[in-house]
TrEMBL record:
Species of the source: Electrophorus electricus (Electric eel)
Subcellular location: Cytoplasm
Keywords: Cytoplasm, Immunoglobulin domain, Muscle protein, Repeat, Thick filament
Name of the protein described by the UniProt record: Myomesin 2a
Taxonomic lineage from the root: Eukaryota, Metazoa, Chordata, Craniata, Vertebrata
Predominant cellular place of this UniProt entry's protein: cytoplasm
Amino acid sequence: YQETSYSSNYSNPTFITYVRESSMIRGPKFLVRLRSHTVFENTPVKLFCTVEGYPTPQVSWFKDDVLLDISSGKYFVEGSVGIHSLTILKCGIDDTAQYTAVASNSHGQASSQAAVIVKSDFHIYAILPEIKYTKINITFLETFDVTFGKEGDCVTLACKMTISPNLANLQPEAQWYRDGRKSDTDFPLTTLPTKPATGVLFCFSSDGPPPVPLAPGAPMDIKIHDANRDYVIVSWKPPNTTTEGPIIGYFVDRCEVGMENWMQCNDSPIKICKYPVSGLFEGHSYCFRVRAVNSHGISRPSRMSNPVAALDPTEFGRLQATKLGGKLDVVTIHDDLEGIGKAPGAPSKVYASETDRTYVVLSWTPPVYHGKAPLWYYIEKSLVGSGSWQRVNTQVPVRSPRYAVFDLAEGKEYLFRVLAANMHGISNPSEPTRPIRTQVLRGVPSAPGQVVSTRETDTSVLIQWAPPKEPNNLIGYYIDSCVKGSKNWTSANHKPLKDTRFVVHGLTTGEMYMFRVQAINELGLSDESQESAPLSVRAALSTGILFVFSPELPSSPYGVALLHCDGESMVLNWKRPLCSGGTPVTDYYIDKYNVAKREWREVNVPPLKERLYKVPKLTLGTVYQFRVYAANFIGLGEPSSPSAPFRCEAWTMPEPGPAYDLSITEIRDDSGVVEWKAPVYNGASAVTGYYVDICKEGTDTWTVANAAAVNHCYLKVKGLETGSSYVFRVRAENASGTGKTSVPSDPVYAKALSGTKEIKCGVDEKTGDVYLCFESCQITEKSQFVWKKSYQEITDFSKGISIKTSGNQSTLSFKNPDKEDVGTFSVSVTNTDGASASYKITAEELEKMMALSYDIRNPIIPLKSELAYKIMERGRVCFWLQAEGISSAVTYKFFANNKELQTKMRHDVATGIIELVLDHFTEDNEGTFSVQIQDGRAKAQSSLVLIGNAFKAALAEADYQRREYIRVKEGPHFSQFLSVHISEDASISLICKVANLKKESAFHWFKDDVEVIPDVPADLSSGVCRLPLPLEKPAACLKFEEATLFQSLSLCPSLPWTGSSAGDLVIQCTAEGIMLQCHMKYYTEEMKIIWMLKDSKISSSERMRVGGTPAMASLEIVEPTERDKGVYTFQITDAEKTYTRTLELSGQGKWNRGKVLGGLPDVVSIMEKKTLSLTCTVCGDPKPQVTWFKNDQEVEPGDQYVILLDSGKFASVTIKGVTLEDSGKFTMCVQNKYGGESVDIIVSVFKHGDKIPDIKPMAAPKRILPPTHPIVIPISSSPAPAPSKSSAPPQSTKSPSSSRFGARRK
């Protein structure tokens, strides 16, 4: 013998196992050969044989050397554990033949033959005596009980029965079933007077102890698919994980038959319950098992699979038996019989017989081959769209016309083709397959629906549930149970269940239990379903809250009515039995009675499920009567009384037929609701309305309950007398009149049930769902709540409507209520004395509840103060708001122009103040500031718009505070700035005063950046610094050394050369118009200058702005017009003379920049989810371009923002479904090459139900935009006189100039 050691890689200690490998039989051998049979015609015959071999031989059956066609249904072949049989179910004369069983494996073949002779049964009746059959009665005295056990335990199941008569030579056989399927093993039944017979029923087995605590249970139901030469596909079902951690994956192990050493097939855990095992040896047989893995460890291995041989499944189809005579047969492969040939032809009909996530199983038809050389195949694949082919099996040629291609990508489309080859060459490729898409991993199933528990026995409960909406290749369900108040969930079934109902056994009587369900597929378990309502375990048919029924037959139906007749058939309706017998009535049967023939006949053989039936095949003019039977689980009840005689004549009256199925609900002391169904026969025109008649029981007086016809099939009848009984009937009406009356209803007692409650309507404080809640005053084990709208049962739950029932209370919830939910809602409780109620939701009430629902789902944190700002020292800006109250878990975000700020933020729970501090407040901060607050589910948002003058004021204040802090707090500063001091002797001095001086402080004077040393040093004690200044020195500045502090002063006395330095007038283009400029060496506004147009003096105004800089005097003309044409004169006077400079605007050229003419508001307030349209009129030549900005960010057109410019005049932006994020500043810019304008609009979005914010419009002036390109101004060619000494700078060629006016200097 051979000893082999094996160590496990997945446990802490190392286990050494010694395995003895004994000798194994390789070739097939018949231990029991076939025997010949002689049988009579039309009788069955069964041929048996026993074969052994390794690997397990495959047996094929031949009739006269022709392979049997098993698919015909005449022959039945079985094979298990080496025992094989062929059954001919009904022999014929043509079945006389010689039958051969051929056993084959990779090591050889063996065969056995037998003859079957079929004789005619002509002499049977003459030979055999008459057989008298004896009936054997079997009565079970004791049924099976539910048995529980653990994995690995031995369980015995037993029952008792009596057999009469008990014949020793005629004993019955016991057949075993498991999960509804016949067991493979037959157990003989032994009957002794004192010994019970044995059998089987339900057995519940729990997982054995895991190798590691909290490790998962063992997988189950191991199956082998698509076995071939070198691979098989193994599938299994996952175990339940009630208290264990989630399963990470699985390990698949294999073991060769006859060996005991298991080898792990995958290196890392796989996550799905299917795995292709490759690398098998052809002709060897294998067994497989699976282990589950979680974070705690590895489970026990699953039950071992049945042995499977790695063989080509098509190999036996290529065998051919040649009869040599006697008992000698030669079995050859088809290829060996062919002559010498050449390269094979191309295969055909390539298709995918199985498709999975990462592999595809291909099958094809072999080519017609004529050669002795072995034939094999190559497979090629191509990703759709790639245009290239890749060979799959480069190392291992394939001999069978079937192959699995692995390692494919999920959800991709592939093409496949096959090539045949032999030693002479390779064929052309086959036609490519159609695109084959691999499956996509869809995930685990969704959670199962509502779980309902119902009492059954003292130790069991019936569980029912709705299947998941997304099954995703559902395998089954696991059910868990838990005692109310504990969290110890235990599994009720350790094997996946495919049905949606299950009886949980082994519960404690009187204990309260809850249940939940999980769905599973090959990827694992779904989320748990909602827990069922707690249920006390006790027998179902015990004393209940309302009624007690013992199972019995139902009572008879009654009230058979004729609804329509067409001369060949009649439509009937009837009322339910008053007593169902304790179980629901499921079926109805109808008998008809021909009055003339006086005989009853059955109408329907299949049972009827509804109480409306069209009786066919009637004779015109014949009178019929009908009776109805009701059936339940126990059996068929008594028939109803015969109906009134109905003559089979076609209805032709123009009025409608009778309504039917009257029912009375919501019975109160003075009212009740009558419901009915529309007539089957409408008459000559459609039904337009209904009338309800009422009659007090005991009288024949009928009165109309409604003066005007109603167009729906229900009516609330009021004005009833408490304690009186009433009968109702209904009449339908059309254009021709009122039709037949319905069958009267059963008497109704006008008295509300004791403890009756009405429907409550409200909004859930936690979820915000609108709900209708009804608490029934009566309830039974089998009661159900039926909710209706407009008295039509609610069956569509796709719009967020849900029903939740717990005990005697049921709630109808609206997750997404809308206007369609306005109407009357009603509920009735089955198996009670009529417990029911209704509630009418009006449009006004629904609107209020929707607003309240919105507030609950989107709670708002009330604010004491909206977002504001304050300027702090150092020029820092603090943005703050104050809430009514916040918790320590509050979170908040600040935004500036839709960009989140990550800076200093803090909050105070005591005061509710939330602050953000900006250390650097600059021009870039202009725009909209907002803060978003969330405290639990409550939210709040506030915004502050800082643009235009408001922002400039805040920026100026911040700059001032920053300078003051530096001046006062951080060192020396000027307490008195630099100024000119003229003494009595007409001497000029520059004087300033500095505070916070130190001993080491020093002063430095500069003139035109050249240091000047004063004759008298500065007085550090007083901080006064003086510099005598000669008259010819025009300017000086002081620099304080220590603090890098500067102060400058320019002096321009009326010197003789001041006016002579003036240069020629030049024209420049500005954002708002044009500017005339005169450059000079020194200029201040105190100088004596005059601007004139056509000899008229120009005064400074908003349109004519006179000003300048220290080196230039200027005149800006805002929005120049035709009136501004002409000669402009500039005069400057000094001590000696007056200097004049002129420039003529000739009016050549045109200039019409883009403008906003009007139509836009300053402030817009709008409720969210509405549509906002901003429209205005623009102009310009050429046509301007319009650009929209949101908080200084350009708006991109899309589904939400629609931007239009119609005819170059009407500009608009439309915002669809505005949200709170759309609050802020919107800017429209209109611009062409000559310039343009921009205007701001403030948009404020508020929530539904909030008060419209009171935002005062701030006058935001239009901003002028400069031209986009330089504008050339034509200038007159006449030369201008040059000044004597001009220091004006030359005109820059880069500066833009106006094109509306030509210019000519003088």
